[in-house]
Write a structure and sequence with these properties.
about 220 residues, mainly alpha, about 60% helix, ABC transporter, transmembrane helix
Length: about 220
């Protein structure tokens, strides 16, 4: 059986690069992820200064939780979802390792989430909430990465939600430890910032380790 000859690529280099970039974006569903992140950020625009009221499972009055602490939870899960490769059969034969492309897609998603969050809060006239939102995004990104490393990208949302729900639904009786309440702590709380940073570093390292073990 004759094997057809492999013809040289005669397309201009710039056109080839554009096709490769679009294949990367499509395989990681970056247009969809960007749309979901944008829609999430718009939740901060109309009433960014009004908190969401959650029922207090401890029996107290409803608990106010800033939107700047809630919306980043959604955005973190969407951003980590960009690491899912829908063209694994093609990507497995790509010149660059698949795990590097997944990590790049996740970084693009995280950076987009941070820019959209900052822009939305600035446009809503709530620049004071930007540090709170970025801290929440940082910590929830770490938890979503940890979830992706443990239970897979499709179910990565479970870990940040399991952390957030007790914080959002329990008041001060019984009190949660200060380090556990980092999503709703004051902007300048060093314990909250330390916890969020540690979660981000730990979750990212765990996810990158898992990705590196799935190179091909």
């Amino acid at each position: 059986m004759l094997t057809p000859p492999i013809l040289p690529n005669t397309e201009p280099a710039e056109q080839t690069r554009r096709k490769l970039h679009w294949s990367f974006c499509r395989s990681h569903r970056l247009p969809l992820v960007t749309t979901l992140l944008t829609l999430s950020a718009t939740l901060l625009l109309p009433r960014a200064d009004d908190p969401l009221l959650f029922p207090d499972l401890a029996g107290g009055p409803p608990l106010p939780v800033p939107l700047a602490a809630c919306v980043p939870l959604l955005m973190a899960c969407f951003a980590v979802g960009a690491t899912m490769d829908t063209m694994e059969g093609f990507s497995a034969h790509a010149a660059r390792p698949r795990y590097l492309m997944a990590a790049l897609a996740g970084a693009i998603g995280a950076a987009t989430a941070a820019v959209l969050t900052t822009t939305a809060l600035a446009a809503a006239g709530q620049p004071a909430d930007i540090p709170l939102a970025l801290r929440a995004l940082t910590g929830f990104l770490g938890l979503a990465c940890l979830g992706a490393a443990v239970v897979g990208v499709r179910a990565c949302w479970t870990v940040p939600f399991l952390w957030a729900l007790p914080v959002f639904l329990l008041g001060q009786d019984p009190p949660l430890p200060a380090w556990a309440r980092w999503p709703v702590a004051e902007n300048g709380d060093p314990t909250a910032w330390t916890t969020a940073a540690l979660l981000a570093v730990t979750g990212t390292a765990a996810f990158l380790l898992r990705l590196s073990h799935r190179r091909r």
